[in-house]
Amino acid sequence: MPELTSAGSVLILWVVLGYLLGSVPFGLLIARAMNLGDIRKIGSGNIGATNVLRTGNKGAAALTLLLDGGKGAVAVLLARWLAAPDAVQLAALGAFLGHCFPVWLGFRGGKGVATFLGILLAWAWPVGLAACGTWLLIAVVFRYSSLAALTAAGLSPVWAVLLGHGTGALLCLLLAVLIYGRHWANIQRLRAGTESRIGGKSG
Predict the structure, then answer these.
(1) What gap in Å lies between CA 163 and CA 165, rounded to an integer?
(2) Could you give the CA distance from residue 155 to residue 38 in angstroms, rounded to a whole number?
(3) Is there a domain that residue 50 lies in?
(4) Cβ-contact 120, 164 below 8 angstroms
(5) Is residue 66 domain-resident?
(6) Relative orientation angle of helices 169-182 and 184-192, to the nearest 10 degrees
(7) DSSP per residue over 22-83, as a string?
(8) φ, ψ for residue 101 (rounded to 5)?
(9) In a domain, 201, yes or no
(10) Which residue range is the domain that position 172 belongs to?
């Protein structure tokens, strides 16, 4: 019993560590550092790279994308290096939740797409590349960031199974469900034909 309790505590610790890593609001910090204003008062009010791009500063948006993806990847890599496979998936989930619901911002964070892709690339790079390729294809063809994210997330469990990483398919499915929830307003706008395209002012 003490060993089970200890193991459970370790797993909970990795969820917490992942959450703390994921909760760093890089988009907000970068926008402030570059004198772009409060990103929460621009465009959609989201703290992610897509909304940072609406400031007109492509460098800030690229840096936000890199760091938001990086924090998910770091959570996965640290857990893989220092703990067991179960801890890897829990740290990944914690990082994603931290980005979407950061305690520092009243639990109002981003939509998790960059962090999601960073997690997949660090966890199983073939799955991550497939998801990134899916996102890029849909974004280029349709020019909807939200549609690209939804498609990439929705297909991620399929890619996990097809590419031989079925043990993580459930994690992919859970993260996809959370991404769909975070994009609910975007889904409604896509259905209504009012969603803004990449480079637009809102959405």
Answers:
(1) 6
(2) 34
(3) yes
(4) no
(5) yes
(6) 70
(7) HT--HHHHHHHHTT---GGGSTT---SHHHHHTTT-HHHHHHHHHHHHHHHHHHHHHHHHHS
(8) -135, 65
(9) no
(10) 2-192
Question: Helices (H) and strands (E) in the chain — how many of each?
Answer: 10, 0
Provide the residue count of the chain.
203
Q: What whole-number distance in Å separates Cα of residue 121 and Cα of residue 165?
A: 12
- How many Cβ atoms are within 10 Å of 4's Cβ, its own excluded? 8
The one-letter amino acid at 63: L
Q: What does the pLDDT profile of the chain (203 residues) look like in tens digits? A: 455 456 678 889 999 999 999 999 999 999 999 999 999 998 888 899 988 988 889 999 999 999 999 999 999 999 999 987 889 999 999 999 999 999 999 999 999 999 999 999 999 999 999 999 999 999 999 999 999 999 999 999 999 999 999 999 999 999 999 999 999 999 999 999 999 888 655 54
Tally of domains in the chain: 1
What residues contact residue 37 under an 8 Å CB cut-off, 6+ apart? 31, 55
Residue at token pair 């619901």: 101
Is position 76 within any domain?
Answer: yes
Of 58, 50, 21, 55, which is closest to residue 38 (Cα–Cα)? 55
143 SS3 class: coil
The CB density around residue 126, as the number of other CB atoms within 10 Å, is: 15
